[in-house]
Write a structure and sequence with these properties.
The complex is a heterodimer.
Chain A lengths: L1 H19 L5 H7 L27 H12 L11 H4 L46 H10 L9 H10 L3 H9 L6 H14 L6 H6 L7 H10 L20 E2 L13 H4 L8 E2 L21 H10 L22 H12 L4 H4 L10
Chain B lengths: L1 H21 L9 E11 L2 E2 L9 E2 L5 E2 L3 E12 L4 E3 L4 E4 L7 E7 L3 E8 L18 H5 L18 E7 L2 E7 L9 E2 L3 E6 L1 E7 L11 H4 L7 H10 L4 E4 L1
Parallel strand pairs in B: 1-14
Antiparallel strand pairs in B: 1-2, 1-8, 3-4, 5-6, 5-7, 5-9, 5-10, 9-12, 9-13, 10-11, 14-15
Classes of the chains: A mainly alpha, B alpha+beta.
Chain lengths: ~350, ~240
């Protein structure tokens, strides 16, 4: 199957060459000669190998194009909203609003998730309805409460008419014949470059810094049966990339994963979010219901609400973890060690138009 | 233009041939395979998964349901008429992932008539972060935390089994693994069967709790750092599997 896909894209590539060659003006031929520079990633040893589709290798030029597109309201129907309107670097690529505003002030019913270390995930959105970042990026562009375009040709026309995009596409993909596939490919490349692995926790693991006693105690609560956060938010990526019901409700407003699978056992399940940079991405949960980490910890400490699909890993539903005030403070102290200032201020991820 | 089209057409034909070439040629005549199906039973009945679907009764008399079951089999050896063959890969079974409930092994030297395996990993193979890139999200589903020297019970590696569900009104997490870095993996002797290309490996879940008796109320919901619970489960583990053709 994979093999088939490669050839499929090869065919596309070659057939587009042939079709346009006779009419191509000079500079387009030089465009096709462009070779984008592969991007080199380095990860800590407790990270898996990244999951990059073979048809869309990550290149410096592709990432740069994707970054422009991500920050550019040109992708929205009235030039007012960009991806970055709802996924802001200062909030770890989430939003500080419970529900973000799209074109015309429209609001949806889910909180914008963070975009961190997505290169290691294979399912996107709270319910996992998108199976790649390319797939995912298609959605907001036409979604009526996000970028609100009626169709792709409007978007492509705006990009073709712009001063900068024909050149950026040429650098990234060796073609200035802009199409929807290359738009989402570039955005996905930028998103794959958004990586966080230099938190105080990582530095502690590497023996570079010491933890306070509170932080060590917090880590012990987090990563043992005491607080049992690690089963769903394992050390490393701090997400298991699996769907769970963490006991938020007895009656579900949003059926979550069930909307994708139709399996009754999936009612009220959502993807465990990463806890990296959790300090910056309030409010929390798929509907942004909690505004502070204290509220989140109180939720888990209370045991959560019973329902037929609540996860058995929420072991003490109805009883609670019974953490003391001091233990709750220490657990929070540990969560704050997952903040990565370098990531938050990384100029490679910031608005290129500023 | 016509010429261009003809060239594309030729190209596509070539590509199609290449694609077909990508599948490894298999010669059905002199190659055998083994397909293993994993079944999970309580006293002969296939388990119905869910917190509240069906409550089973264990030997102690505690009603319990099963929401999910995950485990790993390593050191798998297949036996043939006059030779044996060790598998390089371990097998990961997850009842939430239907893809893992069948395992196929191709290109065998003969009809298989026996199998041996280990539940979990031996200490030498239970290495922290060793299986980060194994398929079916194995690492995230089974990792055993490493507390960086701050807690004896958690020194990294992987869970051997996660059996989870409800008992009374609360939850049990029967998680086995290298508590205190002790090797609680269970190596089984050879299961013999009439030579076959397909077998089923059955786990009788109730046998985890009967001999010696395991009391969920006594050990509570989480037992990863409970060495007594781990020992009792280790002792129970010897008779949980059966193999059928």
């Amino acid at each position: 199957m994979r093999c088939f896909l490669v050839f499929f894209f090869l065919i596309l590539f070659f057939s587009s060459c042939e079709k346009y060659e006779p009419y191509c003006p000079e500079e387009v031929t030089t465009c096709e000669d462009q070779n984008a520079t592969p991007m080199n990633f380095s990860f800590p040893s407790n990270f898996p190998n990244p999951d990059i589709p073979i048809f869309n290798p990550t290149t410096e030029e592709g990432v740069s194009l994707g970054r422009h597109l991500f920050y550019d309201p040109i992708l929205s129907s009235d030039n007012t909203v960009s991806c970055a309107s709802c996924h802001k670097q200062e909030y770890a690529f989430s939003d500080n609003k419970e529900f973000s505003f799209g074109v015309g002030g429209a609001i949806g019913d889910r909180h914008a998730p963070t975009i961190i270390n997505s290169i290691f995930s294979t399912e996107f959105d709270w319910d996992g309805k998108s199976s790649s970042l390319e797939d995912q990026a298609f959605r907001p562009i036409l979604n009526e409460i996000e970028l609100h375009n009626n169709n792709w040709s409007e978007v492509i026309n705006r990009l073709k008419m712009s001063e900068i995009y024909p050149d950026l596409f040429c650098d990234a993909f060796g073609t200035d014949d802009i199409d929807s596939l290359h738009v989402v490919m570039a955005i996905a490349q930028f998103e794959r470059s958004i990586i966080s692995h230099n938190s105080r926790f990582d530095q502690w693991l590497n023996g570079e810094i010491m933890f306070t006693e509170e932080e060590i105690d917090g880590f012990n609560i987090y990563a043992t049966e005491r607080g049992d956060c690690f089963h769903c938010h394992p050390i490393g990526l701090f997400t298991d990339n699996i769907f769970h019901n963490n006991g938020l409700d007895t009656d579900f407003q949003d059926l979550g994963r069930y909307n994708v699978t139709g399996n009754p056992l999936d009612q009220g399940l959502f993807k465990s979010p990463t806890l990296r940079n959790i300090e910056f991405s309030a409010p929390y949960m798929h509907d942004g219901r909690f505004t502070t980490l204290e509220e989140v910890i109180d939720h888990y400490n209370s045991g959560g609400h019973p329902s037929p699909t609540v996860d058995p890993l929420m072991k003490y539903v109805g009883v609670g973890l019974l953490l003391s005030n001091e233990e709750k403070v220490n657990l929070k102290a540990f969560l704050l060690t997952l903040s990565d200032e370098e990531f938050l201020n990384n100029s490679n991820f910031s608005n290129p138009f500023k | 233009m016509l010429k261009n089209n003809f060239i594309s057409f030729l190209f596509i034909i070539v590509v199609i041939f290449c694609c077909v070439g990508c599948e490894p040629d298999s010669d059905p005549d002199d190659s055998y395979s083994l397909s293993i199906q994993f079944n999970h039973l309580v006293d002969g009945e296939e388990i119905v998964y869910g917190n509240d679907n069906i409550f089973y009764m264990n030997e102690f008399g505690t009603p319990y349901s099963v929401r999910r079951l995950l485990y790993v089999l390593s050191d798998v050896v297949l036996y043939f008429e006059d030779e044996s063959m060790a598998l390089n890969d371990f097998i990961f079974i997850n009842t939430d992932d239907a893809e893992t409930l069948n395992y196929n092994i191709e290109n065998l030297p003969g009809l298989c008539s026996g199998i041996s395996f280990r539940l979990g990993f031996s200490s030498e193979k239970n290495i922290d972060n060793e299986y980060l890139n194994s398929p079916n999200n194995f690492h995230n589903a089974m990792v055993w935390p490493n507390l960086n020297g701050t807690n004896l019970a958690f020194q990294g590696g992987y869970h051997y089994m996660k059996l989870e569900g409800k008992y009374d009104e609360i939850f049990y997490n029967t998680h086995t693994g290298p508590t205190n870095a002790e090797d609680f993996s269970i190596a089984y002797p050879v299961f013999d069967f009439t030579a076959s290309e397909s077998i089923s490996i059955n786990m009788n879940v109730n046998n985890w709790y009967n001999e010696p008796i395991y009391d969920m109320n006594l050990f509570g919901s989480g037992i990863m750092d409970n060495i007594e619970a781990q020992i009792i489960l280790y002792q129970n583990g010897s008779d949980i599997f059966s193999v059928e053709t």
